[in-house]
Here is the input.
Amino acid sequence: MEELDLRIENATVVDGSGKPAYRASIGVRGDKVASVGDLKGDAKKTIDAEGLTAVPGFIDSHSHADWTILFFPKCESFVLQGITSFVGGQCGGSPAPIEDMIPLPGLANEYIHELVSFKYYPEKQLFPREQVNELMKEKFG
Here is the structure.
């Protein structure tokens, strides 16, 4: 057997198949799960997952990430929750398809006055993508 990069031992595995949770080891080679079960062979690193549960990624079936993914492409807040997939556009709003003119994402709406002056309600809702990108970079890095 080819050496594993990582062996996770003593994990409670919930594999998403519907069968009950079971105790197993997980072998990782590169960035992919190579095997699950009673593993043989060596690993460069071993982690004891006693008391922890390993699960496949979760799907967030109602997300508004489609408004922020362009500005936070690594989706750290999702990954930290175990979410590996999301369904966007559920509320009928989405920035896609991205064209030359786009709206400000929700978190940047408080800065709309820097792009267009207005007294009661901005007459302009779409802005050149590069202008939005510059504002986002300035305000949010």
